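Lab notes, practical 5.
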Amino acid sequence: MRLTNTLTGEVDELRPVQPGRVGLYVCGVTPYAAAHVGHAMSLMVYDVLVRYLRWPGNPAGGYQVLFTSNYTDVDDKVIERARESGMDPLELSERNIQQWEQEQTLLGLTLPDVRPRVTQEVESILEMIQEIVGHGLAYPTPSGDVYFRVRSKADYGKLSHRDIDQLRQGTRFEPGDEKEFPLDFALWKAAKPGEPAWDSPWGKGRPGWHIECSAMARRYLGERFDVHGGGLDLVFPHHENEIAQAEAAAGQDGTDPDAPPVFADIWMHNGMVTRDNTKMSKSLGNVVSVEEALERWGPDPIRMFVLTSHYRASNNLTDEAMAAATAGVERLTTALRPSEDWESQPDAMASTSDREIDAPDYRRRFIEAMEDDLATPRALSVLFNLARAINRAREASQDVSAAQAELRGLAGVLGLRLAQPTAEAEALLDAVALSRLAADLSVSCGGTDAASTVEALIEARQAARADRDFARADRIRDALAEAGVVLEDSAAGTRWSVRR
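Output from the prediction step:
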C-alpha cells in the first residue's frame, strides 16, 4: 500500500516496522467544546484506513493495527472556556469527551484501541522532557517554564519544508519573554493561579501542547512506528515540533544523516472542511455540530460525502453536496434489497443480454484503488458500477445474492452500513412516545406499532412538503429526530433509520 508522506513529499510504500503489524497515531480533539463535523470527517479518513488495513481481503491478508488517538484534556483553550463557563477545566473536558465518544459510536467510527489523555500521561511526558533537557536541546527558565531550543536542531522545519529563517518571519519576543529565540516553544508551562498543575523538577506546572503527542505516541507505539495522521492544519507547528521532540529525546540533533529512524515513518495529512466555501467559525455562525449533522443527514450520507473526495483534498460541505451523498447511499442500498422487494430504477433499464457479474474483478479494482493512496473516490466508483450490474442482472431475473454479498462486504470496508430499519432497530423505539407524538401533530396512524407510526409521520411530512407547508414538515422531522429516528431524503423517496 502506498500513502502520501508529507515528510518526504512522495507517495511512499507502507513498510511496517514490525511485519504484519501497523502502529497508527492520530492527533485527537481538544475537548473544550462539543465536536463539530470537521472532527468527524477527519477521523473518518483514519477509520477507513484502519478498516482497510485490518481487512483480510487486502493483499497482506490483513494487518494487526494498534490505533492510538489522544485527548488534550488540559490546554489553554480548555482552561479559558472553563473560566468563561464557571466550570472546572477537567470536568469540562470530561463532559465533552463523553459526548464525543457517544457521537463516534453513532457515526460508526472505529474507536481507537488506546485513548490516552494528557492528565493521565504526565509521568511519561516529564520523562521525555528530562531526556531532551539532558541532551541540551531544551532549557528551563527562572520562572519554571521549559523551552525547546529550536536552533539546536539542525533539521528543524523538515516536515513543513521550510527553514528557520522562513518560519521566524513575523515572530517577535514578547515583553518579559524568557525564550532564547522567538521560535522556541514550551515543553512545560509554570503553574498559574487557578489552573491545573502537577509537580515537576522545575516546579508545579503542566505540559505544553506539542510534547504530549510525542510522549504518548512513543509510550504506546514505540520509539519508531508506521503512520502518524492528522489534519493539514497541524503540519506546522504541532507535527513539526512532535518530530523535533521525539528525535531530541533520542539524542538526535539533526546533524547526522545516518542516524537511525525515529518516530513515524509516514506522515499522513487530511484536508480541511469548509461550509459553503467558507471556513467554519463560531463568529460566522456556520459551525455544524456532529449532533446537527447526524439529525439532518445520518451517518452513511456523512461518510459518503467524505469518501467522494480524496483524503488530502478539502471538503466543501453544502446542502447540495449532502443531497448528492444521500442519493449515493440510496443507490447502493437499493442494490442490496431482496429481489422480491425491488422496484426497477432508471439505471436498471438496459439490455438483458450477457449480464454475468464478475464479482472478483470488482474486488480487484476496489483493492487497486485503496492500495493507491487510499483513493476512496475510485473505490466508490467500483461500488456504484457493481450496484448497477446487480440492478441490471436482477431485471433479467438472475440470482444476484453473491454479488450483493460482495457489495455489502466492500461497502463495509469503507464503513458504510447501508442498513434498512430492522426489527432490532425498531425495538429501540418507544411506540407509546411515538403515538403521542403523532397525536400532538394530528397525524392518524394505520397501526399501533412503532414502525407503522414512523411511516405515517413520514407520509404526513411528505404531504406537508407537497403543500409547501415547510414549517409543518420541519416540525415533523425535528420531532422524529428527537425520538431517535434519522430521515434520509433522496430522489427515490425517504428512508429512515434508528440513531443508536
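Observations recorded by the TA: The chain has three domains: 2-270, 278-413, 423-498. The first strand starts at residue 2 and ends at 5.
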